[in-house]
Amino acid sequence: MSDTIFDKIIRREIPADIVYEDNDVLAFRDIHPQAPVHVLFIPKKSFATLNDVGEADAPLLGKLLLAAAAYAKREGFAEAGYRCVINCNKGGGQTVYHLHVHLLAGKQMPERMA
Ligand code: 5GP
Protein backbone atom coordinates (compact mmCIF):
# COMPACT_ATOMS: atom_id res chain seq x y z
CA MET A 1 0.00 0.00 0.00
CA SER A 2 1.57 3.31 -1.03
CA ASP A 3 1.83 6.18 1.40
CA THR A 4 -0.32 9.18 0.50
CA ILE A 5 -0.69 12.76 1.72
CA PHE A 6 -3.68 11.58 3.78
CA ASP A 7 -1.56 8.98 5.60
CA LYS A 8 0.79 11.85 6.49
CA ILE A 9 -2.18 13.85 7.82
CA ILE A 10 -3.26 10.85 9.95
CA ARG A 11 0.28 10.66 11.40
CA ARG A 12 0.28 14.48 11.92
CA GLU A 13 3.34 14.80 9.70
CA ILE A 14 1.62 17.54 7.72
CA PRO A 15 -0.98 19.97 9.06
CA ALA A 16 -4.68 19.82 8.34
CA ASP A 17 -7.76 21.54 9.72
CA ILE A 18 -9.14 18.50 11.54
CA VAL A 19 -12.83 18.73 12.43
CA TYR A 20 -13.53 15.21 13.72
CA GLU A 21 -11.62 12.15 14.87
CA ASP A 22 -12.43 8.78 16.41
CA ASN A 23 -10.68 5.41 16.51
CA ASP A 24 -11.47 4.63 12.87
CA VAL A 25 -12.19 7.92 11.11
CA LEU A 26 -10.49 11.27 10.60
CA ALA A 27 -12.18 14.30 9.01
CA PHE A 28 -10.51 17.51 7.88
CA ARG A 29 -11.27 20.46 5.60
CA ASP A 30 -10.33 20.11 1.94
CA ILE A 31 -7.41 22.34 1.02
CA HIS A 32 -9.21 23.45 -2.20
CA PRO A 33 -12.86 23.71 -1.10
CA GLN A 34 -15.49 23.30 -3.81
CA ALA A 35 -18.28 24.58 -1.52
CA PRO A 36 -18.54 26.69 1.66
CA VAL A 37 -18.34 23.40 3.58
CA HIS A 38 -15.98 20.82 2.07
CA VAL A 39 -14.76 18.18 4.51
CA LEU A 40 -13.00 14.91 3.72
CA PHE A 41 -13.85 11.84 5.82
CA ILE A 42 -11.18 9.16 5.64
CA PRO A 43 -10.70 5.78 7.29
CA LYS A 44 -7.49 5.56 9.32
CA LYS A 45 -7.03 2.16 7.71
CA SER A 46 -5.63 2.59 4.21
CA PHE A 47 -7.58 1.55 1.12
CA ALA A 48 -6.43 3.03 -2.18
CA THR A 49 -9.93 3.09 -3.66
CA LEU A 50 -13.49 1.96 -2.98
CA ASN A 51 -12.65 -1.10 -5.11
CA ASP A 52 -10.21 -2.24 -2.44
CA VAL A 53 -12.71 -2.49 0.40
CA GLY A 54 -13.73 -6.05 1.19
CA GLU A 55 -16.87 -7.41 2.82
CA ALA A 56 -15.14 -7.49 6.21
CA ASP A 57 -14.69 -3.72 6.11
CA ALA A 58 -18.32 -2.93 5.24
CA PRO A 59 -18.92 -1.60 8.80
CA LEU A 60 -16.04 0.85 8.33
CA LEU A 61 -17.71 2.25 5.20
CA GLY A 62 -20.87 2.68 7.26
CA LYS A 63 -18.91 4.51 9.95
CA LEU A 64 -17.47 6.92 7.39
CA LEU A 65 -20.93 7.85 6.11
CA LEU A 66 -22.42 8.05 9.59
CA ALA A 67 -19.55 10.29 10.73
CA ALA A 68 -20.35 12.61 7.81
CA ALA A 69 -24.07 12.64 8.67
CA ALA A 70 -23.35 13.27 12.35
CA TYR A 71 -21.09 16.19 11.40
CA ALA A 72 -23.85 17.65 9.21
CA LYS A 73 -26.30 17.39 12.12
CA ARG A 74 -23.84 18.92 14.60
CA GLU A 75 -23.03 21.80 12.28
CA GLY A 76 -26.72 22.46 11.63
CA PHE A 77 -26.96 21.92 7.86
CA ALA A 78 -28.31 18.36 7.81
CA GLU A 79 -31.87 19.45 7.14
CA ALA A 80 -30.89 22.05 4.53
CA GLY A 81 -28.96 19.30 2.78
CA TYR A 82 -25.52 18.22 1.68
CA ARG A 83 -23.78 15.94 -0.77
CA CYS A 84 -21.42 13.01 -0.11
CA VAL A 85 -19.18 11.87 -2.97
CA ILE A 86 -16.60 9.12 -3.39
CA ASN A 87 -14.43 9.38 -6.49
CA CYS A 88 -12.97 6.07 -7.64
CA ASN A 89 -9.88 5.81 -9.85
CA LYS A 90 -8.87 8.11 -12.69
CA GLY A 91 -12.18 7.93 -14.55
CA GLY A 92 -14.01 8.90 -11.36
CA GLY A 93 -11.77 11.90 -10.80
CA GLN A 94 -9.79 10.43 -7.89
CA THR A 95 -6.46 12.16 -7.27
CA VAL A 96 -5.51 10.96 -3.77
CA TYR A 97 -5.34 7.18 -3.47
CA HIS A 98 -6.55 6.85 0.09
CA LEU A 99 -10.31 6.22 0.19
CA HIS A 100 -12.26 9.32 1.23
CA VAL A 101 -15.77 10.72 1.29
CA HIS A 102 -16.22 14.35 0.25
CA LEU A 103 -18.90 16.15 2.27
CA LEU A 104 -20.07 19.26 0.42
CA ALA A 105 -22.59 21.77 1.76
CA GLY A 106 -23.45 25.42 2.16
CA LYS A 107 -24.65 26.05 -1.38
CA GLN A 108 -27.25 24.62 -3.72
CA MET A 109 -25.78 21.54 -5.41
CA PRO A 110 -26.70 21.01 -9.05
CA GLU A 111 -29.35 18.31 -9.49
CA ARG A 112 -27.35 16.71 -12.28
CA MET A 113 -24.15 15.01 -11.10
CA ALA A 114 -22.16 15.26 -14.32
P1 5GP B 1 -10.15 13.24 -5.00
O1 5GP B 1 -9.91 14.06 -6.24
O2 5GP B 1 -9.08 12.18 -4.83
O3 5GP B 1 -11.52 12.67 -4.88
O4 5GP B 1 -10.05 14.24 -3.79
C1 5GP B 1 -8.84 14.58 -3.20
C2 5GP B 1 -9.09 15.87 -2.45
O5 5GP B 1 -8.02 16.05 -1.56
C3 5GP B 1 -9.15 17.10 -3.35
O6 5GP B 1 -10.40 17.74 -3.20
C4 5GP B 1 -7.99 17.96 -2.86
O7 5GP B 1 -8.28 19.34 -2.86
C5 5GP B 1 -7.74 17.42 -1.46
N1 5GP B 1 -6.35 17.53 -1.02
C6 5GP B 1 -5.25 17.19 -1.73
N2 5GP B 1 -4.14 17.40 -0.99
C7 5GP B 1 -4.58 17.87 0.21
C8 5GP B 1 -3.88 18.26 1.40
O8 5GP B 1 -2.65 18.23 1.50
N3 5GP B 1 -4.65 18.69 2.44
C9 5GP B 1 -6.02 18.73 2.35
N4 5GP B 1 -6.67 19.16 3.44
N5 5GP B 1 -6.69 18.37 1.26
C10 5GP B 1 -5.98 17.93 0.20
Describe it for me?
The protein is α+β, with helices and mostly antiparallel strands and 114 residues long. It has one domain (5-105): HIT-like (HIT family, subunit A, 2-Layer Sandwich). It has helices at residues 5-10, 58-75, and strands spanning 18-21, 25-29, 37-43, 82-85, 101-105. A five-stranded antiparallel sheet has the order 1-2-3-5-4, covered by helices on one side. The chain is globular and about 35 Å long. The mean pLDDT is 97. It binds guanosine-5'-monophosphate. The site of guanosine-5'-monophosphate has 13 residues, from strand 2.
- What compounds sit in this structure? guanosine-5'-monophosphate
Number of helices: 2
Which CATH class applies here?
Alpha Beta
User: Which stretches of 5+ consecutive residues score pLDDT under 50?
Assistant: none
Our estimate of the beta-strand percent is 15-25%
What is the average per-residue confidence, as pLDDT, rounded to a whole number? Answer: 97
Task: Kindly state the number of beta strands.
Answer: 5
Output the radius of gyration.
14 Å
Strand order of the largest sheet: 1-2-3-5-4
Structural shape? globular
CATH superfamily: HIT-like
Question: Separation of termini?
Answer: 30 Å
Work out the count of structural domains: 1
Helical content stands at 10-25%
Output the structural class.
Answer: alpha+beta
* CATH architect. name: 2-Layer Sandwich
Main sheet, how many strands, which sense, barrel? Answer: 5 strands, antiparallel
CATH topology description:
HIT family, subunit A
Give helix and strand order, one letter per element, not per position.
Answer: HEEEHEE
